[in-house]
Amino acid sequence: MISFRLVYSTLAAVLTLISAGTTTAADRVSGETFALRSPVLASNAMAATSQPLATQVALDIMQRGGNAIDAAIAANAVLGLVEPTGNGIGGDLFAIVWDAKSKKLVGLNGSGRSPKSLSLQWFNDQGYESIPSHGPLPVTVPGTVDGWFMLHNRFGSKPMSELLAPAIRYAEQGFPVTQLIAYYWNRSVPILSKWPGFTEQFTLQGRAPKQGEIWRNPNLAKTLKIIAEQGRNGFYTGPVAKVIAEYMQANGGFLSVADLAEHRGNWVDPVSTNYRGYDVWELPPNGQGIAALQMLNMLEEFDLEAMGRESAEFVHLFTEVKKVVFEDRAKYYADPDFNTIPLATLLSKEYARERLKLIDLSDASDAFAAGNILSEGDTIYLTTADSEGNMVSLIQSNYRGMGSGMTPPGLGFILQDRGEMFSLEPGHFNQFEGGKRPFHTIIPAFVTKNGKPWMSFGLMGGAMQPQGHVQIIVNMIDFDLDVQAAGDAPRIHHTGSSEPTGEQMMDGGILNLETGYPYATIRELMRLGHKVQFANGPYGGYQAIHRADNGVYWGATETRKDGHAAGY
After folding, report:
1. Average pLDDT over the chain, rounded to whole?
2. Which of 144, 273, 379, 383 is catalytic?
3. Which of 325, 338, 507, 521 is the most exposed place for a label (fewest CB within 10 A)?
4. What is the spatial distance between Cα 55 and Cα 555, in angstroms, rounded to a whole number?
5. Binding site members for L-glutamate
């Protein structure tokens, strides 16, 4: 018979652990208690992706003489097959590359543009107040395939046919669907099945594949073979473009052969801020990467180490800083070809200090205004590093998980719905225009120290991304966590800020805290006026490769996903 005293003492011990914020899946003898695995260490090469098969393909490419850029392209092609819930060749791509030869960072904006025949006036005439989340209207030109060839033409060393071969082989022979991907796939089926071609190409007799079931995509294999044989033109001007355009025109869409043929990605210069001696790099708009830099500029004014990572003081400060920065994000982040983005001001330390004056350290704010400086959401992330020192930070997405639902016949992929991120407000920086790039959430990141590569990293998940980038940096630099523990630590995710699509924050939004924060912290945050909730996320999907001073690569992967980091 179990004594009441034993039960009571055991329960008390459990409650004590919970109140202290202790969450651990196993009894670790080293490292942080919340870390679910050790960093992966290797001297020659490293890959970290959100699906183990893609990581292994990246390593195999590098072991056979390919470089980090080759490996990133090959891994991304595999991810489009094995993780269609987050990406595919119907979506867009951004990348930051550390080129070991020139010892410089290079940025790639591979995002596509809206159909030129569609206009803001058309949406107004039809009575739309916002762009639909699915179907033909939010579809923009897919930029991923062009992005692959831009990366390959400049940095690649292996033939593109060799890089796409693993994805083609898995598409033909099949692979077992992993746990989290099966979960999200099942959620997407009832939403996307109403659109032509989806059920036929992305379900098993109307249902999603289950965890462990073998999935094949022979249509995607055929499309990848066309790309491997005919190059980017096979996609943008050849047979694939013709099928896409005919399908869209037949189903209420506007994307045309001309829109596809005219698409080109852009090489861009990454932008940075120095945070406590580390240069943190992001890509400029139309993405949201500079939000992370603006947040770091404001947080640098405080002694975060003294506050403590789990303190209400830190969480409150972080949340209020995010709210302030996201007002600028809502107002100014858009396609620079259509607007003059005040980058210099937004990224200046002086502007950060001025914006900090808006924050009350003892009270949660309901609303903020954007700075007056006019004079001036699902994804995959992967990173690779090779023996020569090249490193790639690459992010790719269809948006909203599996995308628009628009699935051209016989091609094996779904078109993205990034056009949803336009505003229909006339005069807004991000207002819809034909041939324009929408505001983009997906952002790769990189860190250098004293002019040398220090970390390639990213954290997927819509508006969580800049918040996640900042938390990774702060966890490593201020709170001295290693690259894996920095990702495993419980995360903060504030929602409800003003958006580039026109929504305005008037009630302070909602603060989501991941399991692991002490109850004392939660209670104090509520007393400060925060609306605290707990949910399944999204808290982001993190991958990273840190390069130590001795040249050793430290790989980290996201324990909240099906991810895998490996090296040799």
Report:
1. 92
2. 379
3. 507
4. 11
5. 462
